[in-house]
Design goal:
The protein has helices spanning 16-23, 67-76, 132-136, 146-155, 171-179, 190-205, and strands at 2-6, 9-13, 28-31, 79-83, 99-102, 112-117, 124-127, 161-164, 182-187. By secondary structure, the protein is an alpha/beta fold. The protein has a single domain (2-205), classed as Vaccinia Virus protein VP39 (Rossmann fold), CATH 3.40.50.150. The longest helix is centred in the last third of the chain and has 16 residues, at 190-205. The relative contact order is 0.23. The protein binds S-adenosylmethionine. S-adenosylmethionine binds at residues 15-17, 32-34, 60, 140, 142-144, 166, 168-169, 171, 186-189, 192, 226.
Length: 226
């Protein structure tokens, strides 16, 4: 296990099943676990859109987290957002407040994604073109737009310290830096961990990180649907 401290962020390289029992309670969890929909073995993307490199799925999407892992996550905070919640609905309690990301394009991929939340309230929708990921700098096969994670944090009025046990390239961490929250991230793939560290360092270094960003360009993303 490796631990990096960057500003108010603590980042662990390791398996969240080992690390979660050691970190204690946090103020919120916002995460995007592997959906277990079998993206392994799919060919690398050959996209030239947005200049991002081809990807491979390196064995992490062949299974979803267990009931035990979700129980541990839910025990750590009262405010929890889990993207891909429709893939885990049988492992999570019933809820009224779902979040929906309308990807703003009707192509041959999912029109929208769903997040389960631990809160009560009305379902909320954000429309955000999937090409936003290219503007962020596409570095992970199932990367979420930073603005989507900022919106997720706003939906639960997140403050204090936010945990993402399936950090990937660190989109939740970047959103936390922009919101002024502390962040604990866990990622077991060393390459994605290093990318997350770099993105979070850059977020702290950005002088205009609280300035509203321009609307997303109209550009097709070749990223997968996760
Ligand atoms: C769906 S991706 C998250 C992508 C992230 N939202 C982003 O924007 O980059 C899930 C991530 O969880 C990581 N992962 C899977 N199982 C894990 C585990 N047991 N502990 C820590 N990380 C894990 C994978 O390596 C993958 O990067």
């Amino acid at each position: 296990m490796r631990v990096e401290h960057i500003g108010d962020c603590t980042l662990y390289l390791g398996d969240c099943r080992d690390i979660l029992p050691t970190i204690g309670r946090v103020d919120a969890v916002v995460t995007d676990p592997p959906y277990g929909i079998g993206r392994d073995g799919k060919p690398r993307s050959s996209s030239r859109h947005g200049g991002h490199k081809g990807y491979e799925f390196r064995g992490w999407d062949d299974g979803r987290p267990s009931q035990e892992t979700f129980s541990t996550i839910l025990s750590l905070a009262s405010s929890v957002v889990i993207w891909g919640g429709n893939y885990f609905a049988d492992l999570l309690p019933a809820t009224s407040k779902w979040l929906s990301w309308d990807k703003g394009q009707r192509i041959d991929q999912a029109d929208a994604e769903l997040a389960w939340t631990s809160l009560s309230g009305a379902l909320r929708v954000i429309t955000l073109n999937r090409a936003e990921i290219n503007q962020d700098g596409a570095v992970h096969p199932t990367q979420k737009p930073v603005r989507l994670m900022e919106w997720s944090l706003a939906q639960i009025n997140a403050s204090g310290v936010v945990l993402d046990p399936f950090m990937g390239s660190g989109s939740t961490g970047v959103a936390c830096v922009r919101r002024g929250c502390g962040f604990v991230g866990i990622e077991r793939d060393a390459e994605y961990f290093d990318i997350a560290c770099e993105r979070i360092r850059k977020a702290y270094a950005q002088p205009d990180m609280f300035v509203e960003r321009p609307a997303p360009a109209k550009q097709l993303s070749m990223l997968g649907d996760e």
